[in-house]
């Protein structure tokens, strides 16, 4: 099933920016002559002072540094806003769709320009200076975008914390980067339920005495308490500041933002991105991977609290003068047809979401999709986890009516932008594969001793050399930067993910290497076994981990969530074990299988296997940091069921 090949549609090969031949030509050039390649493509953004140096990188412990376009100056906000005002001032920059389906708003580039300047002056009024860190804890409303762009405009470094995070998680992120300014809102709303953002901020700030100013954007009008001398209403200050605010001239290597990784694997790291290389890379990948053409309506369902929201709701699309849709709500509210209704309402052409959302919607059946038209859709995208071939095929067939290519984009907070992905006019697709590297990206698979592996093989996924969007350091901890990414395999960036390369040179992400199973000496990624389970008609979602096994070393422990209306029974358990045996082989058949009404996920929707491993090992006392879990209650249920399993 996963070996199926879906050819580039003929009209795509003709109309896209690059076809297969052009991809090969550009890719080869980018690897042979990275300096020449990026010297050329760096020009896609407007520079105040053009760069003369393109690249200066060392991955060595002694002098680890990554610099791109280092003597150039520019402003990211100027590139995302001001430069579009002259020619497309009346075109829509942001379509905002509220949680309530009857509420939406469009913001043109001219309007965006006004809002952002106003916001920038409010920041200045509150004492924010170039280089200061500003924490943004906001719902998905246009003001979140204005706030980020306003920081970029005046050279402040934003640190966006996802609005679903707890006061503790917020406090930790404020303290870690020494942020003295917070922007929040009275409340957020998701799925009809209010989220007390200001109240959470107040709780967080009990342990952040250095915060001087909290700017509060009124959104729902819900009651909040304002602390005299610290808290101000945005609209009150905005009413008295200047309308105009010039852009600060920034060096290419000045910090643009800090973003804490989502925490699937441990203590969040403050990933630091700088201005020039990041913007070049975000905008270039957005244009080519999504084949973005002027006039397209583009919707990425991520939250601005994740890197996907930074690069592919905000910076990439706006740098390209695109129309980007920002959605406040959730895919299942008021019902599971919502995404497709929004596509129809705003004539969305490009739709980019995560496997967790696709699996959740697939669970509800085809009808909520089929009752909508979706005829505006041209291209679909996926990001965040390996997408199971079953979910891929459903997305392709039911959502995209077999008409829309799917770009399965592999990348990380650390990479700033997409590193491995099909290009829709160039790449034949294989369901479940992120396919081929983007320009300038040279993946290398290495064994555990760091030896490069060639041809069709599996190994640790590294990148041989830098690309402009790469993170520059872990904020305040350059040593951790080296240790996390460059210490395992000398001279290479190590992603932490495992990967298989097939005969066609296509890449298949098999999961995080920490999750890799070693069963009787065979190394297996979790993704393959999970995909086999999800391919069964009664299974909605599955997570697989290893647990200590006397004979095999590691046994396979599977957590399975069934589709709506399916009965968990011992017979079905046996059937599923047999099914995996048949799909992959006896070596992969689960030793223990537990029904899971829900799986523990991060707030960005990723399965947290670290916790599932502990439960499988019967080690409930030591679950580690669970502060980034979306629903901690799920864990208690799993522990109860585990104890029943014996
Ligand atoms: P943390 O690093 O804090 O544990 P995280 O890795 O979940 O959190 P992100 O940077 O948001 O934080 O996610 C990047 C990871 O997501 C990748 O390393 C990979 O494991 C997974 N991933 C992202 N996109 C894909 C994809 N298209 N296919 C497979 N895996 C993907
Ligand atoms: Mg990670």
Automatic annotation (TrEMBL):
Query: What family does the Swiss-Prot or TrEMBL record give for this protein?
Result: Belongs to the ATP-dependent AMP-binding enzyme family.
Cofactor(s) the protein needs: Mg(2+)
Keywords in UniProt for this one? Acetylation, ATP-binding, Ligase, Magnesium, Metal-binding, Nucleotide-binding
Q: Which residues bind Mg(2+)?
A: 534, 536, 539
Q: Does the keyword Lyase apply?
A: no
InterPro entries of this UniProt entry?
A: Ac_CoA_lig, ACAS_N, AMP-bd_C, AMP-bd_C_sf, AMP-binding_CS, AMP-dep_synth/lig_dom, ANL_N_sf
Q: Which residues form the AMP-binding enzyme C-terminal domain?
A: 528-606
Question: What positions does the domain Acetyl-coenzyme A synthetase N-terminal occupy?
Answer: 23-80
N6-acetyllysine modified-residue sites: 606
Query: What is the stated purpose of this protein?
Result: Catalyzes the conversion of acetate into acetyl-CoA (AcCoA), an essential intermediate at the junction of anabolic and catabolic pathways. AcsA undergoes a two-step reaction. In the first half reaction, AcsA combines acetate with ATP to form acetyl-adenylate (AcAMP) intermediate. In the second half reaction, it can then transfer the acetyl group from AcAMP to the sulfhydryl group of CoA, forming the product AcCoA.
Task: Report whether Electron transport shows up as a keyword of the record.
Answer: no
Domain AMP-dependent synthetase/ligase intervals: 82-466
Its recorded reaction(s) are: acetate + ATP + CoA = acetyl-CoA + AMP + diphosphate
EC number(s) reported in the record = 6.2.1.1
Q: What is this protein called?
A: Acetyl-coenzyme A synthetase
Entries under Pfam families matching the protein? ACAS_N, AMP-binding, AMP-binding_C
